[in-house]
Amino acid sequence: MIRPALPRWLAVPATAAAVFLAVPLLAMLVRVPWGRVPALLSTPAAVDALWLSLRTCTLTVVVSLVLGLPLALVLSRTRGRWAAWGRVLATVPMVLPPVVAGLALLVALSRRSWLGGWLASIGIDLAFTTAAVVIAQTFVAMPYLVVSVEGALRSAHDEHAVIAATLGASPSVVLRRVTLPLIAPAVASGAALAFARALGEFGATLTFAGSLQGTTRTLPLEIYLQRELDTDTAIALSVVLIAVAALLVAITARLSRGAVTSADGAAA
Amino acid sequence: MKTCNLCAGLAAALLLTSCASTQPAAGGSELVVFAAASLNGTFTELGKEFEASHAGTTVKFSFDGSSALVDQLKQGAPADVFASADRSNMDKAVAAGVITGAPEQFTSNVLTIIVPTGNPAAITGLDDSLTGKKLVVCANGVPCGSATVKLAEALGVTLSPVSEETKVTDVRTKVESGQADAGIVYVTDAKASADLVESIPIQGADKARNDYLIGVAKDAKQAALAAEFIALVKGSRGQEVLKAAGFGE
Lengths: 268, 249
Fold this sequence. Notes:
The complex is a heterodimer.
Chain A lengths: L10 H21 L5 H5 L2 H34 L3 H15 L2 H12 L4 H8 L8 H26 L3 H8 L4 H30 L2 H6 L10 H11 L1 H37 L1
Chain B lengths: L1 H21 L6 E8 L3 H14 L3 E8 L1 H9 L6 E4 L2 H9 L3 E11 L1 E6 L18 E4 L4 H13 L7 E3 L2 H9 L5 E5 H6 L4 E5 L8 E8 L5 H12 L1 H9 L5
Parallel strand pairs in B: 1-2, 1-3, 6-7, 6-8
Antiparallel strand pairs in B: 3-10, 4-10, 5-8, 5-9
């Protein structure tokens, strides 16, 4: 495909933007006490935070897939006002300030709310548990999966599904054999984005779940604490977070490129 | 939370500057005070009184965690007065050479237990009533957490908290919302949220007393005014305001 050339002056603001985004990250890399990094990252507190983050984020992605995928499928087929409302509801947590998300969860699920009280009456106490971390992360991360998958479903070509249905396949078979494979790259990239968002989740966890080593103190909360105690440890942990996030974003970009090319191929 | 503290601090600072800009800036001297976040209410009040008695002088505050303030001073932030919420951070400031002369202690703070209004978990103190209950404390290493550890050791009790927060205000909000059955905070924090929590005094709390120290910054532009402000804080009026907020009990 041939594209018309861009005006040359665009290079100036574009470079400024790239520098603006890169400088803080590079400054942090320069500031890292590389020699001490292995020691800083192998303290029990750091290891616990890392493992807790990986465990809770994995669970968050699983929950997001189990619940978010059906929501995306339903939303993609719904028209009219309800669908519009549903879409707004499904995406608002993406743009909520972190502390607001935490307060919302607290108001809804705290021991003093009716929902929290009802859960407590059947023996489920979420306060200060790892489950509360997963809930907080899912609340802010699932929308990324829903939006990513729904977008793919809307732009996907329906012919295959229609043909399969005409040939007598049941809705479940069409879903499993045709629709899901077609949107698999979008599901994967949505899951990677949700994982990345869950990994960075801070405000909702802090407000809603608390902070205890090995139980609720995830990587961002450990960084928040270490910032008060030892800046070097905070920076070393931050670099881990940046590296994982960069990796996930790279994977996502790769997957969505793959999705675009395969869709183009299908269209051709 | 922390952000709200900051907001309040910023709002106070903005308010002070905007008030100042409407006044004729005759002689227009400005005193910059770096103070621990827990001094927000009391120092803001004293700052206004200082401005009233020193025509043409404005007092600007920067309220933050003591360790954050020491970091800022080390990086050359312009300040005339530094007030720390504990001895170790003031020691750090002195060691870094950003304080002139010997800092002076001007008040202190002790820990207390707070519980949600009505004390639903029937907590009676640092004792067996905490067993199996949701206790929230500050993390060891941050000033209130170090004081908590010190106090528990001095009293020979073992605490098993469900959460160790970075900020004392995070402990407070968890008790205020009823998520936690009990929290350990400073007496001044308990006083500040008296309509949402009840306090249960800890017997022997003064075994972990947090000293507040104040000193003139090395690069103070207003060294004379700084000394006068410190005199106000240490004087009877300053002590009265601090006491009303729960300091020095």
